[in-house]
């Protein structure tokens, strides 16, 4: 499409399924007047936060079952940063709530990383990403998620050096988590061993 052309625009949409998420087919009018259908998965905004302890050089993550990876290749669980759908207007408040529910942390300082589309070709999900320093004393709860949401979450504390090794080996398969780990390495390189291949 050239700069002078009229951009594509949505001229209609119909819902084809509504459950935890909503699935729509949008009718898009292209610059040449052609109308095409595009599927949209809609469940709204989300947040993700990577808590890290700068003194002990560790991070708190969660390991949990995810149906799509299991469906694709039998993956039993995925290692992720605490995350969830945004119920509050303030994404920071949501990040703090998710951190307490999932890993038992009372976070105070949040370091914004960005607001990104997780899958712009299909989903309406836009995630606010944060880094968040914590201390051992901030661990006030057990975490593990909410029973009424059928969450089965294992809380995992990992040394930052080991986390860097896992990222470099391609063992971090969740995109938001990989983005947060790499951002932490760029912003706070002194927290990591000099070589990413060196274990702490």
Automatic annotation (TrEMBL):
The residues the record assigns to binding Mg(2+) 1 are 83, 98, 102
Q: Which Pfam families match?
A: NUDIX
Task: Tell me which UniProt keywords the record has, alphabetically.
Answer: Hydrolase, Magnesium, Metal-binding
- A GO term (biological process) for this protein? nucleoside phosphate metabolic process
Q: Which GO terms describe its molecular function?
A: hydrolase activity, acting on acid anhydrides, in phosphorus-containing anhydrides; metal ion binding
Q: Motif Nudix box: which residue numbers?
A: 84-105
Q: Name one GO cellular component term.
A: cytosol
Protein residues bound to Mg(2+) 2: 151
Q: Which InterPro entries match?
A: NDP_pyrophosphatase (IPR004385), NUDIX_hydrolase-like_dom_sf (IPR015797), NUDIX_hydrolase_dom (IPR000086)
The record's comment on protein family reads: Belongs to the Nudix hydrolase family. NudK subfamily.
Q: Quaternary state and partners of this protein?
A: Homodimer.
Q: Which PANTHER family match?
A: NUDIX HYDROLASE DOMAIN-CONTAINING PROTEIN (PTHR11839:SF18), UDP/ADP-SUGAR PYROPHOSPHATASE (PTHR11839)
What is the name attached to this protein's record? Answer: GDP-mannose pyrophosphatase
């Amino acid at each position: 499409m050239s700069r002078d052309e009229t951009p594509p625009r949505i001229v209609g949409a119909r819902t084809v399924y509504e459950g935890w998420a909503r699935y729509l087919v949008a009718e898009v009018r292209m610059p040449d007047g052609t109308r095409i259908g595009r599927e949209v998965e809609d469940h709204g905004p989300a947040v993700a936060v990577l808590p890290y302890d700068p003194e002990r050089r560790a991070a708190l993550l969660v390991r949990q079952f995810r149906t799509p990876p299991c469906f694709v290749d039998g993956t039993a669980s995925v290692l992720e940063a605490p995350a969830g759908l945004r119920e509050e207007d303030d994404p920071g408040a949501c990040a703090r709530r998710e951190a307490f529910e999932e890993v038992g942390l009372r976070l105070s300082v949040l370091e914004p990383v960005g607001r990104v589309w997780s899958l712009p070709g299909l989903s309406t999900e836009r995630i606010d990403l944060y880094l968040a320093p914590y201390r051992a004393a901030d661990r006030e709860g057990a975490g593990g998620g909410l029973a009424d949401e059928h969450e089965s979450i294992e809380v995992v504390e990992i040394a930052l050096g080991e986390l860097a090794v896992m990222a470099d080996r391609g063992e971090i398969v969740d995109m938001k988590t990989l983005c947060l780990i790499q951002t932490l390495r760029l912003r706070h390189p002194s927290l990591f061993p000099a070589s990413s291949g060196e274990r702490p």
